[in-house]
């Protein structure tokens, strides 16, 4: 069974159906799903996106902001989401810490690898905010980077579909679920499970990636137990 895992959550997953940025019911649901593995002694780290608040990649076309400014705004959005996750986790009985790539000392600690690992060993859920701290890098890349830095045994990408498909299942009825593939195939076939930088990082560090549907209860627990859920990229 996996002992240390990093879970990547998209910012859009936190978005309310009515357009409000943070869905408290989803936060409650997510914390219960993580509590299942937390209570088994699994060390859990989380990276969350900021797309429910601001997407830097859209800044230039939609707002007139330059890409760098937009990316920094997006990073700050991930910090807001990280604080929301921390509240939800602690409400559900899990100690947690927020560590950020951009120093915001009033609300979070700066990311220090050794300290993050110590927190995990002390049974705290560690939430990594502000991406990599640099523009032009996605939170998928941040998740791959942090997972490698903390020696995670598995990276889980939580999505709203059942796994990795050969084409977008939301746009095509002919989309085929890919149960298992390699990073090289994912890159060659442009499967878009993550951006190329993230995939390369995972590949070079021999970090397995499990893509699953977070809305199905128990999927995270199944992944931790090594069950055949979602899609596996190795």
- CATH architectural designation: 3-Layer(aba) Sandwich
Q: Largest sheet, order of strands side by side? A: 4-3-5-2-1-6-10-11-9
Shape: globular
Backbone CA Rg? 17 Å
Distance between the termini: 17 Å
Q: Which stretches of 5+ consecutive residues score pLDDT under 50?
A: none
CATH superfamily: Acetylglutamate kinase-like
Helices, by number, come to 8
> How many distinct beta strands?
11
Helix and strand string, N-terminal first? EHEHHEEHEHEEEEHHEHE
What structural category do the secondary elements indicate? alpha/beta
Helix content: 25-40%
The main sheet comes to: 9 strands, mixed
Q: Roughly what fraction of the amino acids lie in strands?
A: 15-25%
CATH topology: Carbamate kinase
Number of domains: 1
Mean pLDDT: 91
Per CATH, the class reads Alpha Beta
Question: What is the fold's blueprint, element by element?
Answer:
Blueprint: E1 4-9, H1 24-38, E2 43-48, H2 59-63, H3 67-91, E3 96-100, E4 109-110, H4 113-121, E5 125-129, H5 139-149, E6 154-159, E7 164-165, E8 177-178, E9 180-181, H6 183-188, H7 196-204, E10 209-213, H8 219-224, E11 231-233
Parallel strand pairs: 1-2, 1-6, 2-5, 3-4, 3-5, 6-10, 9-11
Antiparallel strand pairs: 7-8, 10-11
Helix pairs in contact: 1-3, 5-7
């Amino acid at each position: 069974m996996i002992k240390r895992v990093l879970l990547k959550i998209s910012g859009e997953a936190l978005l309310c159906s009515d357009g409000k940025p943070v869905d408290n019911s989803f936060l409650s649901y997510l914390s219960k799903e993580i509590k299942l593995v937390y209570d088994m002694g699994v060390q859990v780290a989380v990276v969350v996106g900021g797309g429910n608040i601001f997407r830097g990649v859209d800044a230039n076309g939609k707002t007139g902001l330059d890409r760098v400014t937009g990316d920094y705004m997006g990073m700050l959005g991930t910090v807001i989401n990280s604080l929301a996750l921390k509240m939800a986790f602690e409400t559900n009985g899990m100690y947690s810490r927020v560590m950020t790539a951009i120093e915001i000392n009033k609300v979070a600690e700066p990311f220090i690898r050794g300290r993050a690992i110590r927190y995990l060993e002390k049974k705290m859920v560690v939430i990594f905010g502000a991406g990599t701290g640099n523009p032009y890098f996605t939170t998928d890349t941040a998740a791959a980077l942090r997972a490698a830095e903390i020696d995670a045994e598995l990276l889980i990408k939580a999505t709203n579909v059942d796994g990795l498909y050969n084409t977008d299942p939301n746009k095509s009825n002919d989309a085929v679920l890919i149960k298992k593939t390699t990073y090289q195939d994912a890159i060659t076939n442009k499967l878009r499970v993550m951006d190329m930088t993230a995939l390369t990082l995972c590949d070079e560090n021999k970090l397995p990636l499990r893509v699953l549907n977070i809305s199905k209860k128990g999927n995270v627990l199944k992944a931790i137990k090594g069950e055949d859920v979602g899609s596996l990229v190795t």
